[in-house]
Amino acid sequence: QVSLVESGGGWVQPGGSLRLSCAASGFTFSDVAMTWVRQAPGKGLEWVSAMNNGGDSTEYLDSVKDRFTISRDNAKNTLYLQMNSLKPEDTAVYYCAKGRTGSVYAAYEYWGQGTQVTVSS
Questions:
Q1: Which of 14, 27, 82, 84 has its CA 20 to 30 A from that of 64?
Q2: For residues 112 and 57, is the Cβ–Cβ distance under 8 A?
Q3: How far is CA 109 from the centre of its chain?
Q4: How high is the mean pLDDT of the chain?
Q5: What pLDDT sits at residue 33?
Q6: Which one-letter DSSP state was computed for residue 4?
Q7: For the segment 77-91, what is each residue's pLDDT rounded down to a tens digit?
Q8: DSSP string of 79-115?
């Protein structure tokens, strides 16, 4: 069955960096787009970034552009999110999700359990 396992979260001071990973199994990773979404305390889900199946098309939430970079390694069935210049407002649980198609605009299904990112001094 589909499994998505996020890792790499933690506590970091403002301005710091973290790299999240999402290990995927149970489906053909290279066939589908992948996305990162987050949920801040007391708030709803917020889409962060997406990448198509081939890794040559990406989209970002405006507030994370130029700070976050999504990438994937189809040989390792792994999705990444490099987060630089982190701000307190980036504090959230971050989830990866599997797309229904290879398009960066695909609807998403099957979410992981999430990894906590806390940005504070």
A1: 27
A2: no
A3: 14
A4: 97
A5: 97
A6: E
A7: 999 999 999 999 999
A8: EEEEE-S--GGG-EEEEEEEESSSSTT--EEEE---E
Question: 95, 63, 92: which is closest to 81 by C-alpha?
Answer: 95
- In the block, tokens 């189809």 appear at 74
Q: How far is CA 59 from the centre of its chain?
A: 11
pLDDT, tens digit, 9 for 90 and up, residues 33-53 = 999 999 999 999 999 999 999
The pair of structure tokens assigned to 106 is: 């695909």
For residues 43 and 110, what is the distance between their CA atoms, to the nearest angstrom?
Answer: 20
CA distances to 10, 89, 112 from 4, in Å: 18, 25, 5
d(CA 68, CA 60): 8
d(CA 39, CA 24): 20
How far apart CA 103 and CA 115 sit, in angstroms, is: 25
Handedness of CA 3, 90, 107, 51 (dihedral sign): negative
The Cα angle at residue 67 between residues 57 and 18, in degrees rounded to 5: 105
Cβ(105)–Cβ(34) under 8 Å?
no
